[in-house]
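USER:
I wish I could look at a protein chain and see how it folds. I am handing you a single protein, as its sequence and its fold in token form. As I understand it, each token names a local backbone shape. I hope you can help me see how the letters and the tokens relate. The protein I mean follows directly.
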Amino acid sequence: MVLALSKQQEPANDIRLEALLSISGLTVCFPTPRGLCRAVRDLDLQLASGTILALVGESGSGKSVTGKAILGLVEPPGYFASGEIAVAGESVLSKTPENLRLWRGVKAGIIFQDPASSFDQVFTIGAQMVEALTAHGVDVGSARRETLKWLDGVGFRDPERIISSYPFELSGGMRQRAYIAMVMSLRPSLIIADEPTTALDMLAQSRLLALLQQMRQTTSCSIILITHDLGLAAGIADEVLVMYAGQAVEHGEARNVLSQPAHPYTRALIGSVNWNNPRGGLATIPGQPPVLSDLPPGCAFAPRCSEAVALCKQEEPPDRLQTGAICRCHRPFI
């Protein structure tokens, strides 16, 4: 599923940029007592530098597993069944565990959804940020200066106080900003933010989104925002990729996917959020997502889809280019 750059990211001379992230045919499996769970199925993705991609879908759709897979964080009994992942031309799946440890942070970093669990509560913020830098070869003096610089960069007025503070002494929003400063201090080309606003109030969420946009503008990093919040995706993303039952079902520029959804599942998701129905009467999606170890034949969404016909329940749909997005559906909306 390859997508051209959004207009915001197109260079003036119209020369296409090489993808920072390239995923081809990725399948990630987990053995379970009920059978083999294919948490991610045959995923293709190309992401250019400086692009913010929102990865959206219901819980259990494969979003977080995809994010962890990009960083090589799938642990046994989970395994990579097939596919390739490359970041800045480097193969992730061919790296040894030691090389992966050194590669993470410098080339790709992750922001977890719970700021309270992102830090060890018995060490100061400064000690942990300095350690992250020294582990990648930075001397202690330079690491401390970088720590102060990035704490100032994420909006702390008194970085000296923050580096001496323990995580439990900071609010959730402050911990999240400090963790982002730690991630950014290593200057990764790719950042994966896994539900980063879940534990934050509305004001802290707004500040976090502004900070992510600022990071993209100042460092040209790419950001994958994993979220179930379509309003969040609409406010920050250049591209949206919708996942269902481990598959990418629609991918395109955010403005196209969210204003003219081609896939019935995308349309159902949009119909179920408040900002799309200001007068109430929210739509619901009937049924439940399928068990990934026991997927139905044909399209996995067919049992819940009002547009499904016999073909949908017999054959997996192909990828189609529809309304500026790539859609995996037999009967996409035009």
About this structure: Residues 1-16 have pLDDT under 50 and may be disordered. The CA atoms of residues 25 and 47 lie 15 Å apart. The longest strand covers residues 19-32. The two ends are 19 Å apart (CA to CA).
